[in-house]
Structure formats: C-alpha cells, structure tokens
Amino acid sequence: MSCSTPKKTKDQRPKTKGQSPKSKVHLFQVPIMINIRRANERGHFNHGWLNTYHTFSFDQYYDPRLMGFRSLRVINEDFVSPGHGFPTHGHRDMEIITYILEGALKHEDSMGNGSIIRPGDVQRMTAGTGVRHSEKNASESEPVHLLQIWILPHTTGLHPGYEQKVFSEDERRGSLCLIASEDGRDGSVTVHQDVSVFASILAPGEEVVHELDPKRYGWIQGARGAITINGEDLQQGDGAMINGESALRLVSREPAEVLLFDLA
Predict the structure, then answer these.
(1) Distance from CA of residue 203 to its chain's centroid?
(2) N or C: which end of the chain has fewer CB within 10 A?
(3) Is 91 a member of any domain?
(4) In 203-244, where do the E strands start and end?
(5) What is the pLDDT of residues 56-90, one digit of tens each?
(6) On the CB side of 167, how many CA atoms lie within 13 Å of its CA?
C-alpha cells in the first residue's frame, strides 16, 4: 500500500436515517490537552492461553468512566498462546480492526473469509447486521501478540464486510502511514466512521508530526517501545487522549511502534 503525508481531515460523515446515536460517544471527561492512560491501569486478565489488557471497559472489566473515547470503543492488547484462540463468536454493529505485532493469527468467518494475519497486515471487519468468526494462533510453537480495536460505526445495520491489506515495515518506518480511514484513501482499509488511523515505526531519536484540527480529538496508543508526545512520556501499552492540540510531535526514545487515531 502507499502511505502519504497525513493531512487534516474534515467531517464527512453521511447524514443517514440509520445514523447511530452512539457514533460520537465520549464517556471520558473531555481531556485537557494530553491525558495519559497508563498501561498498568488497564483491565488485565490472564486466562493461561490468553493474557489480555483492556484500555476501555470490556467483558469482565467494567468502569463506567472508561466506556470509550469518541467513536473509539475498544483497544485490547492480546497475547495468545501457541495453538489456542477464540472459538466462533458473534458481533453486530461494530468496525473491528486487527493489528498484529508479532506472530500470526488465523481468521475464519461466516462471510466465507479465511486468512492468516501477520505483522504489517491490517484487517477490517464490518460486523453490521451480524457476523460470526473465529481467531486462532496460527502457530503451534510461537505466541501471537496483537491489538484488536473496535470503532463504533456512523450507521447501524450495515451489510457485513471484510478487508485485509498489507503495509510494509518500510512504509511505516519513519512516517505516519495511513492504515484505515472513512474514504479508504491512500490505499487504507475503509471504516464506516469519521476516523483516520495511522501506524508508525520509529528508530531512537526519530520524530513524526501530525497536524490535528482543533475541533477534532486524538488518541495515541503505544504499541512497543517508548516515545514522547509534545514532551509527555508514553510507554508500551500507554494511551494518550488528546484535545485542543493543533500539532502532535512524536519523538522516539527507543525503537518504537505507535498507532495514532484522528477522531471526530
């Protein structure tokens, strides 16, 4: 895929009768500039085969203050043991993005899709009116480390859909590579919400800058390593809520990988 320099985005959400009333959920108190959600404050469960961390309320972890940020509903960091995985289960009315950090994940769904997702692959599944799928570590000897992201769609009752694209390490290295967007621009996967998601791999001392419309919000997820955001430290597993900043300067303090969400 081709990754270009990120640009400011405008609110282009369709005004449809089926527009979800939850599409602009903001259950956090509005952050002042940059507010860090530390990794060790996340919900954590070790089920043996699955070691999982929940940035927002999910499954057995519930905090009414942490139901999501804008349209961003779930960020789960999962470590799945070799040969194990999630049996077939269902979803509705959610945009689900899977981003692999290490290892490989086998995916099968009720739409007839079957694939292996590896680092650099970005998978988007629109649950819409309903979809069932399974996810399993594709290896019998190596763990898989991934981020699963749920985004509330702008419209309920969408037709289920699936998309998977590859973004090479070179494309993500030293830049903000657009991996998901509402209009699928620059070769990104398409999500049904006014959001742009960027991925970046940074060497120590390397920096990238993202211009943020003051009327929009940002979330930065530390996937690996350590960076600073406008001078604020962010470690692996930390998340940063951003409001009222016009430019985000990300500087790596060690080899790092991050995801940046530009949200309405």
Answers:
(1) 21
(2) N
(3) yes
(4) 207-211, 217-224, 227-229, 232-234, 239-243
(5) 999 999 999 999 999 999 999 999 999 999 999 99
(6) 27
